[in-house]
Amino acid sequence: MHETLIQRLNSLAMLSLAQQRDLKQVLKHEILPKDVYLLREGEVSDQIYFVLEGVIRSFKKNDDKEVTQWFSFPNHFAVPYFSFSYRQPSDISMITLSDSQLLSLSYGGLQYLLDKDSIWIDINRRLLEEYYTSLQNRVTSFQVQSAKERYESILLEHPDIAERVNLGYLASYLGISQETLSRLRAKKRRRNKV
Question: Which fold has domain 2-117?
Fold first, then answer.
C-alpha cells in the first residue's frame, strides 16, 4: 500500500530507503466506507490524504446548494491547502463517495519530515506546483471551454467517471445543470454508436 505513494513521490524526487522509512512512520492507513466526512466546512484541516482506492469529493456550500470543487481519484492527493498550510478554518468539506482506502499524513507528521530532511521541502514544493497548475487549468477551462469541451476533457482523464460519481456532483463540477449533462452524455452515446 505504501509502495503506490512511494512510486508517486519518486516521480518527483527519488527517496532513499531511510527516507521511505521516515515516511512510513508518519503515515496512517485508513479504510473508510462511503459517505464519511474527512473534513467539514469550518474545521481546520489536519490531514493530507493520498487515495489508494475510492473517490473523495471536495465541495463548498453555496446557499442551499453544494458546489463540487474537486474529485480526488486513486493516486491523487486530497487536501484543502489553504486550511492545512495556514491552520485556518476550511471553506470546503471533503467526503468519501465510495468505500475508500487512504493514506493520511498529519500536519505534525509533515512538519517532522520537513524538519528532518530537505528532500521533503523539494517534494512539497513540486506537489504545490502540480496543485497550482491543476487549479490554473481548471480556471482556464471555465474561461475558454464550452460545457461540451469540459465534459470531454474530464472523460479523457477519467473515462469511468460517470460510473464512479453521482451525475449531480459531476454536473456541479463542470458548472452545468444536470439536464445539460444528460444531453451531453446522450449526444456522446449517439456519436459512439455511429
Answer: Jelly Rolls (2.60.120)
